[in-house]
């Protein structure tokens, strides 16, 4: 069905542009509010230490071939020792970390604040879009799509014969939601981009982090085979010097 | 560590500012970013910016960072009045700030009032027990008072928590070397090599420490690390070349009675000697005689 619908330019003036402008403004407002509400979070010494241990263990794994075998072995024992190795986390403690994180009032409050500041504007804007801007075709996507996308993109339009490229304003809303991140990083400075998608991903995988990564590092370390690279260096040094002297 | 391009850029800016070509603010920003210690220049140009009200207001909110930078530079050059003035200005603007508290502690340190400075730092640490900079200042204070063992203790405690801080490992290694505790120094250098394996400086220092420790195994390892330094620097490091020659002759002496494992050792030593001669000929022709006689005595 390749009929060309002609869309009124008034749609562009009164739907697409205002919607984008509103989303940009809401994003900026959210940024400032979050800055005001951000409380100084005292870093937990245990977590800091674990982070550093992980970095050190990773360095050991990565550059293991540069130090003599004896030193490597003694360090490996230091890390993965059954009794008091740094990376060894007995099973009981692993569960504890997660439970503690959720019961600690401060942390729960912080998580709530962060999530709220993201959920509320999104919900409100979405409801507003649905209420005011539904029931008509808002834009045409420049490339053809399959019929599968009809339910997603054409939600307010109840005609089944309209080409799937003609979408409702709800899809314009989603496009803006994910696409304005670049614009925000320009306006608000490099690190303050509204990384909605990142935050949504963070919401999912939270409390397990410390103990899981420790045991992951321990496994990685146990696997490493130490192959001392230094003897090779002697040959290479010879080659270098030969070139230099000749 | 500062890379070569950054170093050339810094020198260029420094020359430009020295010869009256402006650009003092960029120079100060670069010094701050690279954490280089050029206190006299920072003091001179920073003060010139701060004392000129037009230039000062042109900086906007960066003005306070400049105050902090100039205060630290003034303390380094023992201009304590300047430092006190800067600190007063900062205190007026940020009354409850930890950074200003740290400056206060540093000012007390500069005056030599160790006990008061200790008190200030302890109170700051109570509020925030994980402040890295304050821990390091306490170590520096212990070192300045000559209490090296105290410095070692606090540095070790610091490293138990922040074990990925390679600057701290480097400081600890240097302290151990100054106290001739070479085994511990070797451990620290191994940590440094692990965290930054392509920096030839650490290989060289590690090789030096191993050579000083002595013993056949250490000598052989040390020779390998001198070789890796040569490889990483493209053969331009004179110390590594000399190190190779010394190591080979020392190994030869120690293992006189046993079987010499001849893998590739003779070639490396002769090549290193030749490279050394070439370099001396280019750069210090008059000392070439000294070099050849020293090398000849080694090869025996």
TrEMBL record, chain A:
Membrane-spanning segments: 14-33, 119-143
Q: Which Pfam families match?
A: EMC3_TMCO1
Q: What's a BP term from Gene Ontology annotated to this protein?
A: protein folding in endoplasmic reticulum
Q: Which UniProt keywords are given for this protein, alphabetically ordered?
A: Membrane, Transmembrane, Transmembrane helix
Q: How does it sit in the membrane?
A: Multi-pass membrane protein
Q: Which GO terms describe its cellular component?
A: EMC complex
Q: Where in the cell is it found?
A: Membrane
Q: Which family does it belong to?
A: Belongs to the EMC3 family.
Question: What is the protein's name according to its record?
Answer: ER membrane protein complex subunit 3
TrEMBL record, chain B:
The record's subcellular location field reads: Endoplasmic reticulum membrane
Q: Which UniProt keywords apply?
A: Endoplasmic reticulum, Membrane, Repeat, TPR repeat
Q: Which residues form a coiled coil?
A: none
Annotated signal sequence is none
Q: Which residues form the EMC2 TPR-like domain?
A: 99-209
One GO CC annotation = EMC complex
The way this protein sits in the membrane is described as: Peripheral membrane protein
What family is it from? Belongs to the EMC2 family.
**Functional description taken from the UniProt entry:** Part of the endoplasmic reticulum membrane protein complex (EMC) that enables the energy-independent insertion into endoplasmic reticulum membranes of newly synthesized membrane proteins.
Q: What is this protein called?
A: ER membrane protein complex subunit 2
Please give the organism.
Answer: Gossypium tomentosum
